């Protein structure tokens, strides 16, 4: 009788354990399916070429058809590869069917125009890491009929696999340049 009771209890415990394992497996499957569906339903866009960023109503933009002089500050520490990547990224907007007809013309110089010169972007390198920008930022300004921008690249553009960095710098330059077009 005692042996029979122990056997029944063991059988009962195995059944309970089987139910718990089954419920845990079902819960894991359910949660995993939910997260997988969220992952697969995301609106994902390629980073290069980047799409035109959404236009915020209060953001300054260069007027349609503007010829924008972009001055890369030769004194702030860009490498020749970074300069070429920034140039390629910005000028890749030229002639694109984005309805802005804005043309970026890039010049590397130590003789920068005064801040606030119409239809200009001044590009500089900041030798510090930025935790809030991803490595670059553009501030666009509009004062009356004058529109201009200040673009900064941070140390972040030098972090990672060296063979991928030129493409990364081109991509973030293109992204930032997109903020200036209508």
Describe the structure.
This protein is of the alpha/beta class and 182 residues long. The chain folds into two domains: 1-44; 67-178, Collagenase (Catalytic Domain), CATH 3.40.390. The chain is 36% helix and 21% strand. The chain is built from three helices and five strands. The protein has helices spanning 2-40, 80-91, 165-178; strands at residues 67-73, 103-109, 120-126, 136-143, 146-154. A five-stranded mixed β-sheet has the order 2-1-3-5-4, covered by helices on one side. It is elongated. It starts with a helix and ends with a helix. The relative contact order is 0.18. Residues 38-48 have low confidence and may be disordered.
Task: Set down the secondary structure blueprint.
Blueprint (H helix, E strand, L loop, with lengths): L1 H39 L26 E7 L6 H12 L11 E7 L10 E7 L9 E8 L2 E9 L10 H14 L4
Parallel strand pairs: 1-2, 1-3, 3-5
Antiparallel strand pairs: 4-5
CATH architecture annotation name of the largest domain = 3-Layer(aba) Sandwich
Using the CA coordinates, give the radius of gyration: 28 Å
Helix-strand string: HEHEEEEH
Anisotropy-based shape:
elongated
Query: How does the helix and strand content classify structurally?
Result: alpha/beta
Look up the CATH topology of the largest domain.
Collagenase (Catalytic Domain)
- What is the average per-residue confidence, as pLDDT, rounded to a whole number? 82
Helical proportion, percent range: 25-40%
Give the biggest sheet: 5 strands, mixed
- Strand content is 15-25%
Instruction: Please provide the count of β strands.
Output: 5
In the predicted model, the low-confidence regions spanning at least 5 consecutive residues are 38-48
Q: Can you count the helices?
A: 3
In the CATH hierarchy, what is the class of the largest domain? Alpha Beta
Distance between the termini: 87 Å
Number of domains: 2
Strands in their spatial order, largest beta sheet: 2-1-3-5-4
């Amino acid at each position: 009788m005692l042996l029979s009771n122990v056997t029944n209890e063991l059988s009962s415990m195995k059944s309970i354990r089987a139910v718990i394992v089954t419920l845990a497996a079902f819960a894991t499957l359910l949660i995993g399916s939910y997260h997988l569906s969220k992952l697969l339903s995301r609106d994902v866009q390629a980073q290069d070429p980047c799409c035109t960023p959404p236009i915020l109503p209060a953001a300054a933009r260069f007027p349609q058809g503007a010829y924008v002089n972009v001055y890369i500050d030769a004194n702030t520490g860009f490498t020749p590869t970074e300069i070429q990547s920034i140039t390629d990224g910005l000028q890749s907007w030229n002639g694109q069917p984005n309805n802005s007809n804005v043309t970026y013309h890039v010049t590397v110089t130590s003789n920068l125009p005064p801040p606030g010169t119409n239809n200009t972007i001044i590009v500089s390198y900041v030798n510090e890491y930025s935790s809030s920008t991803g490595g670059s930022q553009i501030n666009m300004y509009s004062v009356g009929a004058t529109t201009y921008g200040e673009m900064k690249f941070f140390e972040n553009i030098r972090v990672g696999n060296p063979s991928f960095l030129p493409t990364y710098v081109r991509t973030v330059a293109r992204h930032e340049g997109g903020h200036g077009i209508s």
